[in-house]
Every structure is written in structure tokens, then in C-alpha cells.
Amino acid sequence: MSAPSPSPRPAQPELLEFDALYRREFAYVWRMLRAHGVPEARIEDAVQDVFMVVYRRWADWQADSRALAPRSWLFGIARRVAANHRRRQARESRPPDLALVAEAEAPADERTARRRALARLERALDELDERSRTVFVLAELEGMTGPEIAELVGEKLNTVYWRLRTARAKVTKKLQARGGQP
User: Fold this and answer.
1) Are the beta carbons of 125 and 34 closer than 8 angstroms?
2) Which residues does UniProt call coiled coil (predicted)?
């Protein structure tokens, strides 16, 4: 049995398109991964993983590009990569997150306060199921509307609104229980 052949590389014009997509959507992919629970220490690897998938699947996406917008495609890939990174982190019994250790040891200044607030938010988001977390992140952090989210995640609009309402309530409750403001 012969070894599988490597995926074909995009042709030069497609490589330029890939580069343009990378430059245009890097920050979006970074935010999506971070919002989906990829620890800051692993975020660069996760972004690279997303764009490696994009590179390998470029020809497939180009063939179907009329059916799927670039951000929708990147969102789906980023969500799967984030889930893989979270599973990998759970398997590797790693020491506590360095951001949390730094939070406990750092002086109480504005930067530390922001870091603590972000850590509280991340812990609250970690307690949401994946679908609710996705809707919350897209609405609250990305500023997307209900109809935009429904289209992106492929759910009914009323379901999106229900998930958002319950996610907001859960996050608010968790933040208040931990001494943070909603």
C-alpha cells in the first residue's frame, strides 16, 4: 500500500488569495479561538492550526465558495480547532494556567484588574455548553445580530435568542457569585 499523496498546494493566484484571507481574518480567528476557550499560551498554535486546515482545504472551499462565506467557513474550522485544543489540554494534566498564577501574585493595578475580570469571564464561559457559549461570544464579543448568528450556526432564530438569553443569565449569575460585575 502506498503512502497517501500530500494535498496539492494552491496555485500562485490562489496562494495570493490565501495570503489576503489570512491577513484580513487573522484577528477574527484569534478572537474566536480565545472566546472558545483556547488558553492564551496556546492561541498562536491554534491560529496556525486553523490556517493549516484552510490551506489544505483551499481547493474544496473554492469549489463551494458560493455556498459558504469566508467567515462562516473560518468560524467552523476555529470552533473545531478550539474544541480539539481544549480536549488536548484536559488530557495533559498541566500545571495551573500561568495567567491565574500571575493574577494571584500581581499587584492590584488596572491591568491586573482587567486580567482578573477576563479570567472570571473565561471561567463563567467554561461552564456554558458549547452552543450557548458560541451564541454568547458571537453576540456579546463580536457584536453580531441574532439573524447573523442564526445563519452562521445554522439554527432557528428563536433558538439563538433563547440560547443568548439563558447564557447571559448564567454568565451574569456566575460573575456576580464571584464578585464581578455583569
Assistant:
1) no
2) none
